[in-house]
Amino acid sequence: MQNPNRRRFLGTLAAGAALAGGAGLATRALAAPQAVVVGGGPAGAAAALALRDMRPDAPVLLIERDPRRLGRSAGAFDRPAAGPDLAALRRAGVQVVLDDVVGLDWRAARLELFSGRRLAFDALMLAPGTAPLDEPIPGLDAVARHRWPAAWGSAREGQRLAAQLAALPEKAHVVLRLPSPLSHPQAALDRALRLAALLTRTRPAARLTVLEAGATPGLADRFRAVAAPGMTWLTGPEGGAVLSVDAPAGTLETGAGRLRADVVNFVGLQGAGAIARVAGLADASGWCPVDAAGRSLHRSETLILGDARKGATRQVAAALASARDAARA
Ligand SMILES: Cc1cc2nc3c(=O)[nH]c(=O)nc-3n(C[C@H](O)[C@H](O)[C@H](O)COP(=O)(O)OP(=O)(O)OC[C@H]3O[C@@H](n4cnc5c(N)ncnc54)[C@H](O)[C@@H]3O)c2cc1C
Q: Whose alpha carbon is nearest atom 38 of ligand 1?
């Protein structure tokens, strides 16, 4: 038996489909109701497919700003591309729009896109993943963020970091900075181990320092168990917190003193994707509080999927599970 929320979501779609007729995106933009999924990562793409599967007669539109995200392979230091790709979405009849959702008008039930288009929705699923939050660290400005790429979900930053690492001097010092709390603890450990392995292979005389602002249980120990000499992990209590930075000079003031680095992979504090915050779906933590079915606690008619949810396990399998759950909700 369907639960009341699933009936409500599917009922909204059915009503929308009856009104929509056969209009295309351009003419629908202000008039025709439909289900819209924002974000084409694993969670959003899987949810769009699941919706098509459940109601082949109802239009489903997926908006993704980064066309590479709907491809099959991930680039250097990128997130895994483990969701359904563009071909699978199109085969299933999902309409894909490549654009950036920059605003949301709840009263008019309308999304505002970077291109200037506006898009009406009847049912909304938001899967925007994560984005950096502001951190009050003196010197951490746009220049610093550019010179010291986080490469934490941005393919372009991943390429920049890879290029910087390829140009390192033999006796380089590389710093990996990790915030607290960590959005993706396993990915953070993987990043540290990957940098360590890369330096061991290509620059055996180089050093790596991991500066963790907090002390996530188990991470430092797992790193130390396999790290080569010259590879150090400092937790917050050991001086790993970054107090201020001077990116042009290549220095970081930490609880353990000043460090000079040739390359810094500066991972900033994360929260839900910016559109979730703009739309008022995130709380003071920067994440979107949801109930067990993924409904927003701020807007119960909206489903939040994947990494953007507060308290989520931020891995591909969990993102896919959240899409399945939401489609059933
Ligand atoms: C560096 C890193 C490494 C990782 N490694 C692993 C791993 O090895 N194994 C694993 O299981 N998990 C890994 N993860 C976690 C995994 O990537 C996430 O759990 C998963 O991608 C979450 O899926 P999602 O769909 O919720 O969000 P995302 O994959 O982040 O997708 C969100 C999508 O929404 C789009 N978007 C955001 N805002 C808008 C907007 N306003 N308009 C239009 N589009 C928008 C983005 O472009 C993006 O494509 C890693 C994460 C990181 C950061």
A: 128
